[in-house]
Amino acid sequence: MITTHVVPDARTAGSLVAERIARLVRAVPAAVIGVATGSSPLPVYRALADLVDGGLDLSRVTWFALDEYVGLPPEHPESYRSVLDRELVAPLGLDRLRVHVPEPGSDPYAAAAAYEADIVRAGGIDLQLLGIGGNGHLGFNEPGTPFGIPTHVAELTHATRRDNARFFPSLLEVPTLCVTQGLGTIGRARAHALIATGEAKAAAVAAALTGPVGPECPGSLLQRCPDVFVALDDAAAGGVEPTGQEIDAVR
Ligand code: F6R
Predict the structure, then answer these.
(1) How far is it, in rounded angstroms, from Cα 108 to Cα 62?
(2) Between 6 and which of 31, 138, 217, 242 could a Cys-Cys bridge form, CB atoms 3.0 to 4.6 Å apart?
(3) Across 51-67, average pLDDT
(4) Residue 250 — pLDDT band, cuts 50, 70, 90?
(5) CB of 110 within 8 A of CB of 103?
(6) How far apart are alpha carbons 82 and 67 in whole angstroms?
(7) Mean pLDDT, the chain, as a whole number?
(8) How many Å apart are CA 22 and CA 206, to the nearest integer?
């Protein structure tokens, strides 16, 4: 079931998702949480940092990133390891060793298989935090990716590389390959939280939440998932109707 919350701005959307995560951790202190990079989850991490300041204990949580570029050393400022160190580990005071990120190194195919096995060994993901690409991608599962695929090496589309070029000196420096949790991996998470903000996401959000279900829109996988919490700002919501109770969710 998908519960959709529509709020005026990204900050409030971030607070809603942070509260959803906190609800899980209060119930299951050793929860396994999947995390995303990119711009969308930043307000979630900021709101979570406030909750940690207020006493939320994340010390027993295990974290798994969605994806990592192939060809960037972990210490590169735009590797997802570095981004998560900066945006998640440091502000929330996490133990870095509890935050897993694929390590493509010299053998990304072996790294993808090892990462999938690590997630299984951890007991699977309790809650997967997601952003969505303008083309509907989840993780780096681009349109056309089969729903059942495990963690794998994927090629970034030109559109995704162009979107991500804002983080690099030029488009040429955006990697072309990544290791990403597959749609099979993402779909097996026991719950999901999607945050999308800004007008550029409106079409992808509408397709994911209300369009036909199939690989042409990877985000439409969420329509098959049992517990999906969606937080949108007005611009990303476009015509999508809210089904959630914002007042209850923002405490
Ligand atoms: C990030 C990821 C991607 C992003 C998506 C949206 O780990 O896997 O799917 O969630 O590209 O990116 P932003 O949030 O930067 O618009």
Answers:
(1) 22
(2) 242
(3) 98
(4) very low
(5) no
(6) 12
(7) 96
(8) 27
| Angstrom distance (rounded) from CA 124 to CA 198 | 31
Is residue 217 helix, strand or coil? strand
pTM: 0.96
The residue nearest atom 4 of ligand 1, judged by CA position, is 131
Tally the C-alpha atoms within 13 A of residue 187's C-alpha that lie toward its C-beta.
19
In this structure, the strands spanning 62-65 and 67-69 are: unpaired
Q: Is 137 in the pocket of ligand 1 (CB under 6 A)?
A: yes
Q: Please state the length of the chain.
A: 251
User: For residue 251, what pLDDT is reported?
Assistant: 34
Q: Is 205 in the pocket of ligand 1 (CB under 6 A)?
A: no
Residue 150 half-sphere exposure toward CB, CA atoms < 13 A: 13
Query: Is the Cβ atom of 39 under 6 angstroms away from ligand 1?
Result: yes
Nearest alpha-carbon partner for 156 in 135, 173, 142: 142
Q: What does the block give as tokens for 93?
A: 């005071």
The alpha carbon of 168 and the centre of ligand 1 are apart by a number of angstroms equal to 15
The mean pLDDT value for 145-153 works out to: 98
Residue 245: the pLDDT is: 59
